[in-house]
Amino acid sequence: MHRSLRKVVATLLALGCLCCCARDKSPLQTQVPPTPGQSPLDPFVQNTLLARGVNLGNALEAPNEGDWGVVLEERYFQLIKEAGFTAVRIPVRWSAHASNKAPFLIDPAFVERVDWAVNQALHRGLAVVLNIHHYEEMMEDPTGHKERFLSLWRQIAQRYRDYPAELFFELLNEPNGNLTAEVWNTLLPEAIAAVRASNPYRILIIGPGQWNAVGALESLRLPEDERGIIVTFHYYNPFQFTHQGAEWVQGSQAWLGTTWTGTPQQKNAIELEFVRAKLWAEQHNRPLFVGEFGAYSKADMNSRALWTGFVARQAEKYGMSWCYWEFCAGFGVYDRNANDWHYPLLRALIP
Questions:
Q1: pLDDT of residue 25
Q2: CA 316 to CA 126: how far, in whole Å?
Q3: In angstroms, how far is CA 277 from the centroid of its own chain?
Q4: What is the pLDDT, as a whole number, of residue 126?
Q5: Around Cβ 164, how many Cβ atoms within 10 Å?
Q6: How confident is the model at residue 149 (pLDDT cuts 50, 70, 90)?
Q7: Buried/exposed code over 37-64 (b: 16+ C-beta within 10 A; e: otherwise)
Q8: The pTM is what?
Q9: Residue 226 annotated to the active site
Q10: Are 148 and 19 in contact (CB under 8 A)?
Q11: Residue 128 · residue 91 · CB < 8 Å
Q12: Of 65, 273, 282, 292, which one is the catalytic site residue?
């Protein structure tokens, strides 16, 4: 272990928190939650429900389901459950299915499709993270879209107000662009209030600006009196490895062939970032959820499996729940064409 890492880990040992959450709650010890409407929920206990998750990406957050090649099927939820995952994250592009004029009503048919996905997961005992994803207009013009964003959450929250506590609301995926950390922090109290009007005790998931980057945790400002929150960050470092050949990333073709073999230097670089995230969580008494991590399919499978397994174990080591990106597309742990798992990735995630 690198000398600087030893010093940070020693600090964690002194805090008594190296391998556990701030209340000694392991994300692998799942518990049955009460209904959100009954009483306040402990976010550390609720975080144990998320434990080991997978994102149902490239489906409902596409402009229209199927545009990016993925249409959700009932069998996917059963496969995920049987493989040993405890949760799914359902990214949803609500903004593509809502009016642009007040009161910004969401298309009822689209809502029913989201209902179906949420219920498929809950009926199989999977916890569900439901978010607002790819609200690109919000990133470009946060002031102009503020009321629409708040209206979307009022509608979503009202729709699912009677759902069990296994359903979590994630306010917004990866704030970026003109939705700076400062603007995001200013908006958060209003967004939380929009949900709390109908869901006083549901656990919310909130990440920092700058694309939910782990290094942006220090910039996140949450209302101190609002404790029903799990904080999320996304992890894709080293980016030139995880996004090599990604068609949407400029210059990524030059990164093809980048490997990750688990050298001490490579491992230390990742562990230092997780240790720093853990120290932030301890300081602020917030549980952590690694809402996305994954390596694109243009990387070699051996490197992908080694990196994926190491990141997942780091999250678990420091008491964080996690959710792999994603199920069956470019980062997928499942090959929908072969109707079978990419077993090196599956075994890396769930040994």
A1: 37
A2: 19
A3: 15
A4: 98
A5: 16
A6: very high
A7: eeeebbbbbbbbbbbbbbbbbbbbbbee
A8: 0.91
A9: no
A10: no
A11: no
A12: 292
Instruction: Give the dihedral sign, CA 138/142/147/150.
Output: positive
Confidence label for 16 from pLDDT (cuts 50, 70 and 90) = very low
- Catalytic site includes residue 292: yes
Its sign, for the CA torsion 305, 306, 310, 316, is positive
- Please list the residues that pair with 169 across neighbouring strands: 130, 204
- The CA distance from 167 to 163, in Å, is 7
> Letter for the amino acid at 264?
P
8 Å CB contact between 288 and 319: yes
Q: What CA–CA distance (Å, rounded) separates 150 from 194? A: 6
Whether cis (ω within 30° of 0) applies to the bond prior to 27 is no
Tokens 């490895």, located at residue: 241
What is the SS3 assignment for 10? Answer: helix
Query: d(Cα 15, Cα 11) in Å, to the nearest integer?
Result: 6
AA letter at 179:
L
CA 105 to chain centre: 26
Alpha carbon distances (Å) from 192 to 46, 68, 100, 169, 276? 18, 31, 22, 10, 26
Region 296-305: mean pLDDT is 98
Q: What average pLDDT does range 210-220 have in this prediction?
A: 98
Single out the catalytic residue among 61, 65, 170, 174: 174
For the cut 70, the answer to whether the pLDDT of residue 27 exceeds it is no
pLDDT tens for residues 218-275?
999 999 999 999 999 999 999 999 999 999 999 999 999 999 999 999 999 999 999 9
Higher pLDDT, 307 or 8: 307
340-341 and 52-55 strand pairing: unpaired
The tokens for 310 are: 């190491």
Computed on alpha carbons and rounded to an integer, the radius of gyration of the chain in Å comes to 19
Average pLDDT over residues 336-344: 97
Q: How far apart are CA 26 and CA 19, in angstroms?
A: 8
3-class secondary structure per residue, 43-109? HHHHHHHHCEEEECCCCCCCCCCCCCCCCCCHHHHHHHHHHCCCEEEECCCHHHHECCCCCCCECHH
Q: In this structure, what token pair is assigned to residue 280?
A: 């932030």
